[in-house]
Structures are given as structure tokens and as C-alpha cells.
Amino acid sequence: MTGNNHGLYPRFGRVGLVSKGIVYCITGVMAFIGAFELGGGGGEVNKSGIFSFVEQAGGRTALGILALGLLCYCIWRGIQAFSDKEHKGNSAKGLGTRAVYLLSGIAYLLLAIYAGKMALFHQKGSGGDSQQNLASQLLDKPFGPALLGLVALIIAGVGIYQAYYGLSGHYKKHVEGLSAHDSTSRLLLVSGRIGYLAKGIVWLLIATLLAKAALHTNAGEAGDTGKAFAFLEQWSFGSYLLGAVAFGLVCYGVFNFIRARYERF
Fold first, then answer.
1. Model pTM?
2. What whole-number distance in Å separates Cα of residue 261 and Cα of residue 9?
3. What is the residue-wise DSSP string for 178-215?
């Protein structure tokens, strides 16, 4: 990729990517510990559990720094969306890509707010499981199961695209012009492929739970990453499958670290 590595824009990008990588690495480690019940388990693998882990390990200061880092990621995505720093243009495809940047920024803004509340006020965000809340709200509306089923299909589509993005090698665009040694480029290639595949699987698991909730008209069957991991663990060789996905999420975290260090913005 080409770009200017000076100024606020790349700084927001680098700090944001590091913070995102930290979240994914912690998610993967906690899921791996839980899969094999190491040390009594890794706790609930959702945003509350992840940020509680950060707070316990590094205190409220560390959690506050992570919240600021996630806010930087949000700002970086917002700049990409509105200022078109990557020159996607105003075509249908370009606007679609910029819309994805914006949605990604909003998602991480919500995470930053959640982490910030915990750091400043020792207060966890309200509302519990966001997927169950969404399922409950949709099921209360006319044609609720159909609407929830549509959401499940959209999320499944995102999961399939994430897996395709990794397996097809599209993520390799981040290697172009990489100012790193060959070993770093190879690590980026391997971690990106495995990481995007793992991300896709997680999205597909969440979509499956939403689809079950729609089919049975039961919002309680929907769930966040923690419930998705528990669902996967119930399968044959589930602990090993969850361990593999957990390893993939750590790889995705590493992928973000390497991008933050070497990518040209």
C-alpha cells in the first residue's frame, strides 16, 4: 500500500491496529484456556470478560489506555470513510467499502465506550448480551422471525466473506511495499490467512445462533462470542475445534501488530 506515514492519520491507524490486536489476542488466549480448562478456565469470552481480564492484569489505567486505543481505531476508520484516504472513490463499490469502514468504526467506538466506562467508573455497560437483545427486539416486531433470519443471513455473509478474504489472499495487499524483512512478510501472510479464516468461523457461529433463535422464536438461543464458543465446544472434538479457532484469533491479533508496525498509510 502507498501513503504518507507522517501526521495524525497514520498515528491513529497504528495505535488503533495495536489496540485491536490486543483485543483479539486476549480473546484467543481466553478461548484457548477455556477450551482445555487450563488453570480453571479463562473466564467468559465476551467484551465484559475481555475488559475485566485487562483490568485485573494491568489495572484501570491499562484498561483506559486500551479504550483510548480503540477510540483511535474508530477515528482512523472514520477518516477512511469520510475523507477517502484510500482513494476508493464514489462508485458503488467504493462507497460500499467506505460504508464498511464506517460500520467498523462504529463497532469499535461502542467497545471503546464500554471499556472507558469500566476504566473510569468501574461500571460495565448495560444491556447484557447484545445479540440476545437484538434478537428479542426483532422477535417482538411483526414478521420478527423473518427479520431475525435475515440478520442471521447477513452476518453469515460477513463470515463467509471474512473466510474468503483470507483464503483468497486478498489480505496480501497489506504486504505490498512492506518495509520489513522477508520473515516478517511471511509471518504476516500466514497470520492473516489463519486469522481471517478464524474470524469468519466466529461470525458464522454467531449467525447460526441467531438463525436458531429465529427458527424457534426464542431470543435466548442467540448469543455473543462466549455463547458461540460454548456452542462450538459441544460438537465432536469441540475442545480441539475451539482451540484451533482460538489460535486463529491470536494469529489475527499478530496480523494487526505487524500491520501497525510496517504498513504504509
1. 0.90
2. 14
3. --S-HHHHHHHHHHHHHHHHHHHHHHHHHHHHHHHHHH
What digits encode the pLDDT tens for the residues 100-119?
999 999 999 999 999 999 99
CA pair distance 7, 66, nearest whole angstrom: 21
- The answer to whether 258 and 191 have CB atoms below 8 angstroms apart is yes
Spell out the residues 6+ positions from residue 78 whose beta carbon is closer than 8 angstroms to its own: 101, 102, 105
For residues 47 and 54, is the Cβ–Cβ distance under 8 A? no
Grid cell in block for residue 28: 484467543
**In the 3-class helix/strand/coil scheme, how is 110-169 assigned residue by residue?**
HHHHHHHHHHHHCCCCCCCCHHHHHHHHHHCCCCHHHHHHHHHHHHHHHHHHHHHHHHCC
Contact 230, 32 (CB under 8 A): no
In whole angstroms, give the CA distance from residue 99 to residue 103: 6
* Count of CA atoms in the C-beta half-sphere (13 A) of 127: 14
Residue 176 grid coordinates: 505490498
The amino acid occupying position 116 is: G
Phi, psi of 41, rounded to the nearest 5 degrees: 100, 160
d(CA 85, CA 253): 24
Of 112, 108, 101, the residue nearest 78 (C-alpha) = 101
pLDDT digits (tens, 9 = 90+) for 176-215: 655 556 777 788 889 999 999 999 999 999 999 999 999 9
The single residue listed with the C-alpha cell 505487524 is 258
